[in-house]
Design brief:
The chain is mostly helical and about 525 residues long. The chain has helices at about 1-10, 15-20, 45-55, 65-80, 85-95, 100-105, 115-120, 135-140, 150, 155-170, 175, 190-195, 205-220, 220-255, 270-300, 305-310, 335-355, 360, 375-380, 395-405, 410-440, 450-480, 485-495; strands spanning about 505, 510. Helix 10 (about 155-170) packs across helix 21 (about 410-440), helix 13 crosses helix 17 (about 335-355) and helix 14 (about 220-255) packs parallel to helix 22.
Length: about 525
Amino acid sequence: MKSLILIFAMSIAAPNLMAQREGGPPPRNDKAPRQEGSQNETPTLTSEQKAKVMAILAQYKASALTAADARAIHEAFRDAGLRDGPALKQILEEAGFDLDKLRDLDPPPDKDTENGRASKDNKKETVHEKGKPADREQRKSGGTQKYCLEQAVSDHAQLHTIAFNGLAFITGDFGASTFIPPGKVCDFFGFQYMRDIDAAQKGHNPMFLNRVAGNVLRILNNEQRALLEKAARQEAGQLLTLAEKRLPLIKAFCRELNADVPSGSKGLNKEAVMRYVGDVFASDAELSYKRAQIFGQIASSFTPEQKKYLAQMHFGDFNSWPDVDMDKYKLPRGTEKLVNVAYMTYASEFFSWYAGSIEADTYFCPERHGTYFGGFYMKDMPAMGKRDYNISTSVTGDSGKMFLDTLNETQRGYVTGIIESQRKALLEIIVVRKNISCELRKFLKGEIPDKNKIIEMGRRYGELDGEMSWYYAIAFAKVKRTLTPEQNATLVKLRNLEGYQSAPYYIYSQAMKEKPALPDTDSFFFQPQNEKAQ
């Protein structure tokens, strides 16, 4: 409880969180089995349950709470096994949620009033607000809508994603660890959410980005397309710098993995890692600000015809997007590759942001953090250069589980222990992402966000990502040092990339031919004269 209160109170991450969110406990269910003890006794919420509460409420704003929102919150709590009672009520009220308003909007089933009867009647309706997920019943009945922030921060999803990264890092090399899709930076524009919930299940096919970008470029006029091209050309260098900043950190992680630490050092210094990643994410946030500024400028210049065209393209439904000949809208032959990548990324993200929501912008997939260990290389490399290739959505979970199954109890404990160690940081990330997303969306309203505030929130985001990544690097190194030859052989087979050879390093997904010239990385490690236990 104290940890959650601390998160809400942090001035950097969420100075006005309580004014932005509200929610409430689920309706009472008299048919549910009672817990042992007195009728009013409710078990203390576990850390995982607290995380679920945070993830659920991150999708809603106090200033725009509707009856449909309240109903969805109640259903989400029930789905998560969260029962009404003092423990749940306390955590919500301390966070500033108006429980009475929530109950008024969606009264408990046993409240036999006119509003209560109306609420029960309205439960049959399916809610499809702009950028909102489909009704929860679709998830339960096996529909395509199965990804949400609650799932992303669950212990199950986090553990298998971390384990997948562990497998990639231990069996890979420096070059593979530098590979990262361009969409994993400056990712406050809802694109990841849109692809994860895609009704056609094309979200992880290369056709997905081309189709949505093609439609945006098709409907834009020459002046609007020129804005995207100008931004891509101006920011390509900054995107390059952002990718290059990752390299020394990854080198330091590889040194820890291979026990190549400075003489007399105890290993990676968590505070040094956090500071460094904070700087990287501050640059990420500044680029995100510039991107949102261009997007807002384009949106404000739309004609009624353009708005109508985009309105017919449904968020999260590839099948509703017309097939477009991308050759008509590509940049001239010979354009630098990173400029082309930026141009296409901006076009696709414009739509996901314009048609999306705060929920979509805040969302992240479990693999968004700790991106320094080669998981993207191991998963995405078979799809590289192929126009129509569906990357299996189960490969991360399946491979992560097999990795854990290969380890002995002690080794497995190094990895599973990360879940509790990172929990506080992961919860705060939800808050930080939402506040950055809310600030950036001011551009769509014709307002000017606070740039310095966004950059500082980005820096805090990086510190949190760095902290979690430090836990990963330390745990993976401990596992590697204790593997038997038989275990090593099994893990290489699980890598399932026979015949693939990584480049010396990558700038996003572009292979580079020569080894990078890197600064000394000793600064990431404890120095003998000032070692301090972490």
